[in-house]
Design the sequence.
């Protein structure tokens, strides 16, 4: 069927109506496949889980109130730090936009809708608005949670902090999505995206360092501390999210189809891997999504692998010298993040220890790449005449060395903060080394637990949803929870300081349990098959002699 | 000379210094190529020679690293080029929650085809590919071959002046292959430009011009026999 010259495409409204009809038809077909009772049951289980989480977390947050001088410090320096946080979120938006995000369209939409003679602006407006709405909602929830945390330690009352947190969070989320759409629509190259993201974060970091507010993100920070101090001029920054979001939504028509198609394919695979809690696959797909590939030429040329016992170590080092720069930067950021989160924990915001544990866990996943590759391709290690456990444990030293470097970065962050007057330097020097060792070791062991974990069995389908749900949650959190154990010496040190004792030796004595857990974890990596064999033999009845 | 005359004279597909690379790997070296309106062209080459890369750039799905490609005188991917070019990919991508008939109606309407015309043309296509019994089924229940047939029907339900087909016979049964060949020849006879990337030697009898690629470079352009094609794909 050849095209007719008289057929108008760009000005015809029929395709736009067809798009609306498509959305309706797909919604109708999906609704027809939904079991109403199952939907209600899922809602009930979700509500049950949320209530449980609320109950547990409300007890977990029991923090000390700040002194008047500390409140003054928070009023003066708080906007800068909040601004830095906002800048980091916006930087993520910029980076995502330069890689074709934040929209993830169905692959069929890319193929059929975006290749049709319909103005892409019209076709993408609804998904873009939906994305902004979703990001704003996530920001609202996270912001409200931070508001609740702040209300535990600062004057101003829970309703005020929660409302301000929710507002600033929603604004930040919407802006992150908006700036992502803007960058995506303008087809900003990834290197330029990185430059812009660095500039945004750098400006806010300079504000923090100089103790001034010059960036728009700092003004948003001023809005965030309204319960402490209200400055009317900061309200002017409310124009910014409107401009960014409107600009992003209106400009999204320029997005790259190449990136949209890649995201469509990979994002659906990532979602599937997430439903299976297959973190390793998520990591691999994410690398494809961001086009993060090993360097064709290594940073350092190494001699041949040779033979002997250390051949696995040398193979692991070879993998590391081919890491792209962005992976080194990520490990550096994770180390700094862990250090800052532990500082916050020491200063009294106990839940921040979870942030530190997650940062070390993620670093562990990166460091453990060589072992993970062996697990991904079981045929390769199986073809080597070496006991599997021996081969696995041979992969541990190099990632452990990487983790120690990450830990040292975290420690250096704490020392710098101490030198800047955040807290006594001797604390950083005496407690820090213990945390470097235990945090690095357990960071690695947590990652090992996640990488080596078998996929979930289908047997859970027979369990009631409440039990299956709890089992699923435990499965998801137990590996990062192992890392948490590695950071517990900080509590021994805090307790010792409260009771007038030396915190350094206390942290050292608190390291016994994490070190034992780490050794056990590595032992499990080495003797996993033997342990399974032993347990199997214990549960199988011995046949009686005839 | 008016714009209309310029459009009439413009090649159906014109590549000028068109190149694509991924990092240090060049998928397509700078390519100069013009295909006139109404030609039936066979694009051949071994795996990794750059056929799909070239066709996807023509469809607007890939962005060239350098150079340009235009369809009927309009830049690939522009509104006008999208109206002219129908792309039948080697991997069918369908909505899981739309039936075959809903797919046809939706795609047809996106391209300005009336409901009656979709019904009429869709019924003929489904009959040809023996899909009539599955008109109200969702593609999730389809085999690879049925999905491929659905994808072909979607590419042909809409108006086009340039038909770009990538490895069309993969996954099709013999009647399906015959039906598709008939449709391709039919489109060509109606005046459309048809570009088919295929390894099928039997298509040599149908194609009037053969373009050979190897390692991303143009190595052959002209009429070809089955032996020529065999040599080009080996």
Sequence:
């Amino acid at each position: 069927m050849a095209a007719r010259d008289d057929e108008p495409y760009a000005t015809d409204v029929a395709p736009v109506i067809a798009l609306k009809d498509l959305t309706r038809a797909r919604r109708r077909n999906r609704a027809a496949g939904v079991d109403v009772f199952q939907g209600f049951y899922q809602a009930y289980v979700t509500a049950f889980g949320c209530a449980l989480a609320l109950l547990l977390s409300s007890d977990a947050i029991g923090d000390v109130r700040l002194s008047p001088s500390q409140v003054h410090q928070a009023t003066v320096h708080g906007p800068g730090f909040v601004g830095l946080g906002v800048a980091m979120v916006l930087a993520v938006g910029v980076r995502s936009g330069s890689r074709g995000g934040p929209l993830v369209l169905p692959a069929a939409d890319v193929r059929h809708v975006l290749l049709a003679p319909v103005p892409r602006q019209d076709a993408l407006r609804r998904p873009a608005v939906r994305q902004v709405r979703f990001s704003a909602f996530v920001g609202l929830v996270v912001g409200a949670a931070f508001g609740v945390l702040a209300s535990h330690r600062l004057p101003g009352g829970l309703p005020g902090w929660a409302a301000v947190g929710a507002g600033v969070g929603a604004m930040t989320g919407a802006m992150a999505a908006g700036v992502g759409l803007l960058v995506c629509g303008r087809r900003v190259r990834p290197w330029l995206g990185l430059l812009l993201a660095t500039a945004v974060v750098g400006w806010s970091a300079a504000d923090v360092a100089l103790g001034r507010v010059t960036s728009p993100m700092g003004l948003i920070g001023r809005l965030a501390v309204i319960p402490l101090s209200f400055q009317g001029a900061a309200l002017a920054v409310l124009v910014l999210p409107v401009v960014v979001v409107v600009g992003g939504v209106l400009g999204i028509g320029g997005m790259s189809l190449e990136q949209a198609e890649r995201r469509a394919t990979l994002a659906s695979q990532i979602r599937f891997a997430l439903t299976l809690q297959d973190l390793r696959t998520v990591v691999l797909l994410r690398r494809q999504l961001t086009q993060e590939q090993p360097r064709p030429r290594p940073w350092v040329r190494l001699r041949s692998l040779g033979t002997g016992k250390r051949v696995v170590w040398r193979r692991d080092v070879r993998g590391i010298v081919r890491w792209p720069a962005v992976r080194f930067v990520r490990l550096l950021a994770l180390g700094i993040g862990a250090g800052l989160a532990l500082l916050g924990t020491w200063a009294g915001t106990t839940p921040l220890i979870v942030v530190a544990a997650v940062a070390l866990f993620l670093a562990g996943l990166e460091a453990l790449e060589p072992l993970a590759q062996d697990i991904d391709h079981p045929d390769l290690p199986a073809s080597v005449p070496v006991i599997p456990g021996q081969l696995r444990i041979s992969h541990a030293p190099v990632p452990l060395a990487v983790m120690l470097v990450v830990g040292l970065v975290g420690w250096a962050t704490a020392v710098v903060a101490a030198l800047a007057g955040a807290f006594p330097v001797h604390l950083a020097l005496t407690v820090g080394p213990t945390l470097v060792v235990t945090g690095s070791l357990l960071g690695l062991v947590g990652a090992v637990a996640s990488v080596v974990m078998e996929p979930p069995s289908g047997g859970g389908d027979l369990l009631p949803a409440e039990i299956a749900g709890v089992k699923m949650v435990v499965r998801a959190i137990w590996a990062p929870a192992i890392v948490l154990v590695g950071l517990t010496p900080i509590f021994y040190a805090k307790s010792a300081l409260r009771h007038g004792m030396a915190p350094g030796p206390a942290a050292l004595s608190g390291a016994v349990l994490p070190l034992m857990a780490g050794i056990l974890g590595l032992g499990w990596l080495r003797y996993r098959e033997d342990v399974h064999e032993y347990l199997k033999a214990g549960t199988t009845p011995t046949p009686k002699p005839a | 000379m008016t714009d209309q005359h310029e459009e009439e004279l413009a090649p159906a597909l014109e590549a000028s210094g068109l190149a694509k690379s991924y990092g240090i790997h060049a998928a397509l070296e700078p390519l100069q190529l013009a295909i006139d309106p109404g030609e039936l062209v066979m694009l051949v080459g071994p795996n990794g020679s750059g056929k799909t890369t070239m066709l996807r750039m023509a469809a607007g799905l890939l962005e060239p690293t350098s150079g340009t490609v235009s369809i009927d005188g309009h830049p690939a991917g522009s509104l006008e080029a999208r109206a002219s070019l129908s792309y039948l990919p080697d991997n069918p991508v369908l909505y899981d929650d739309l039936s075959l008939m809903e797919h046809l109606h939706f795609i047809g309407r996106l391209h300005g085809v009336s409901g009656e015309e979709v019904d009429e043309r869709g019924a003929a296509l489904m009959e040809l590919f023996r899909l009539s019994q599955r008109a109200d089924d969702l593609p999730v229940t389809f085999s690879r071959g049925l999905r491929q047939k659905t994808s072909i029907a979607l590419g042909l339900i809409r108006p086009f002046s340039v038909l770009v087909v990538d490895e069309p016979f993969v996954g099709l049964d013999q009647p399906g292959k015959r039906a598709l060949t008939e449709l391709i020849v039919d489109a060509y006879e109606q005046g459309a430009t048809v570009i088919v990337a295929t390894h099928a030697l039997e298509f040599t009898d149908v194609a009037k011009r053969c373009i050979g690629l190897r390692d991303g470079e143009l190595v052959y352009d002209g009429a070809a026999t089955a032996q020529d094609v065999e040599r080009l794909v080996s």
